[in-house]
Specification:
The chain is α/β, with parallel strands linked by helices. The chain contains 12 helices and 12 strands. It is globular, with a radius of gyration of 19 Å. Bound molecules: glyceraldehyde-3-phosphate, 1,3-dihydroxyacetonephosphate and zinc ion. 1,3-dihydroxyacetonephosphate binds next to strand 3, strand 12 and helix 11.
Length: 330
């Protein structure tokens, strides 16, 4: 058994309480490799932001849990070396079973998500409670989910989203004992969120998708005052990256993400964790494609992953400062 406390990590309890009071959301950025982790830590130190490092099942399969845990431990040391001891959570994203959650808890994770959102309600309650009962013995925090997001989550693909039913949230939270709740109010996973044909154009010529269901969020807040709420699928799909990828040989569909103003509005509410993965993938891919197109003779990975890391850092700094509001909250 490896405790996150010995790795210099924290659970999400105090982080969320502070975020709700302060009207901001903590960034939850996914990482799978060294350059993504460096960019996250550099950006969060530069903006003095707390951070949640997210590891999906796919990341575990790709990078190995022992390596990921030690990278997270190293991330804390790296942050201190850079001059700011920011709080860092190591979180399992979309845990699919009790066994996966237990394995992460036993391997130094300070927080886990058990995603039973696709299960019948009573099965979701039973599975989530089982994970909470185990996690809380070790002071590990647990995120549950009610409502289903469209898009791809680790090999499981959902065509349509089902919004969270506010009338279920009190029962779910009190019977499971979860520390935070992910909800479905119109966000979705991946880079293909909204078809431009379903968007309207604003005065500046920017495509605006159908708004998030803030009415559902408000009803959930009314029923669970001060309880930490989580938003998945919150990438904004920056158009400059999509254009760059396609300019240099990519073939991405035209798509629109979650507008930054809507995320800012959510961050001011009891939404205290916002998950972003796809935007990081787009930023890195855009830079790698550009460098390799402009320098076809280049074959040193540092020469294309370095600029990708720099762009990623810039993007995370922007999100912390201008979107989530987590800058200067560490
Ligand atoms: O919500 C899913 C995350 O973006 C993780 O994606 O399963 O491909 O690592 P992944
Ligand atoms: P995006 O695909 O919108 O980045 O969402 C990521 C996410 O929800 C990870 O759990
Ligand atoms: Zn997610």
């Amino acid at each position: 058994m490896i405790s996150y406390k010995d790795l210099g990590l924290v659970n999400s309890k105090k982080m969320f309480a502070k975020a709700i009071k302060g009207g901001y959301a903590v960034p939850a950025y996914n990482f799978n490799n060294l350059e993504q982790l460096q960019a996250i830590i550099q950006a969060c130190v530069a903006t003095k932001s707390p951070v949640i490092l997210q590891v999906s099942k796919g990341a575990r399969d790709y990078a190995n849990i022992n390596l990921l845990r030690n990278m997270a431990r190293g991330a804390g040391e790296y942050a201190r070396e850079l001059g700011c001891d920011i709080p860092i959570v190591l979180h399992l994203d979309h845990g699919d079973s009790f066994e996966t959650c237990k394995d992460c808890i036993d391997n130094g994770f300070s927080s886990v998500m058990i995603d039973g959102s696709h299960l019948p309600y009573e099965e979701n309650v039973a599975l989530t409670k089982k994970v909470v009962d185990y996690a809380h013995k070790f002071d590990v925090t647990v995120e549950g989910e009610l409502g289903v997001l469209a898009g791809i989550e680790d090999e499981v693909s959902h065509e349509k989203s089902n919004y969270t039913k506010p009338e279920e949230v009190v029962d779910f939270v009190s019977r499971t004992g979860v520390d935070s709740l992910a909800i479905s109010i119109g966000t979705s996973h991946g880079a293909n969120k909204f078809d431009p044909a379903h968007c309207t154009v604003n005065e500046e010529g920017i495509l605006i998708p159908p708004p998030l269901r803030f009415d559902i969020l408000e009803e959930i807040e009314r029923r669970l005052p001060g309880f930490p709420i989580v938003l998945h699928g919150s990438s904004s799909v920056p158009q400059e990256y999509v254009k760059k990828i396609n300019k240099y040989g990519g073939k991405l569909k035209d798509s629109v993400g979650i507008p930054e103003e809507q995320l800012r509005r959510a961050a001011k509410s009891s939404v205290c964790k916002i998950n972003i993965d796809s935007d990081g993938r787009l930023a890195m891919t855009a830079m790698v494609r550009e460098v390799l197109h402009n320098k076809p003779a280049e074959f040193d990975p540092r020469k294309y992953l370095g600029p990708a890391r720099e762009e990623l850092k810039k993007m995370y700094m922007h999100k912390n400062t201008n979107v989530l509001g987590s800058a200067n909250q560490a």
